[in-house]
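User: Is it possible to get a 3D structure for a protein together with its bound compound? The compound here is zinc ion. I've pasted both below.
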Amino acid sequence: MVAQIPLVDYLVLDDEPRLVSKQCVTCGARFFDRRNACAACFSTAGFDDVDVAREGTLTAYTIVSHAAPGVPVPFVAGVVDCDGTSVRGNVVNVSPDPEHVHLGMKVRLTIVSAGVDAAGTEAVGYGFEPIEGSAGSGRER
Ligand SMILES: [Zn+2]
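Assistant: Yes, that's possible. Here is the predicted structure of the complex:
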């Protein structure tokens, strides 16, 4: 059994992976990074941990064909609306081309291995993969 460590602290690896956002107790705005005050309403009243929906809709994407050395290209960088929470993440397990990736496609959270170190600990990030059945509808556009 390989130990798994999330790359970002808002990724929780339970039986099913999920993202946990900080939700402003004053206005309900959600953020993924640690903050001392809300960027939306400037409240310092604090934040609650809130689970983000595991499925969502791709609302923006870019097919990245040039990246830093060592980063495999092309890949799809996207923004997914998860039941009202906007999440940046790569679209994975799909051919990175406009034929297979389209706005409005349904995707779900999945984990992506970022490598295993010498001690056998696996670093795990997240991405979004197409939900079966939604593939192919992009041909109508
Ligand atoms: Zn706020």
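The chain has one domain: 4-130. The beta strands are 3-6, 11-13, 17-24, 30-31, 47-51, 55-64, 75-82, 85-91, 106-116, 121-130.
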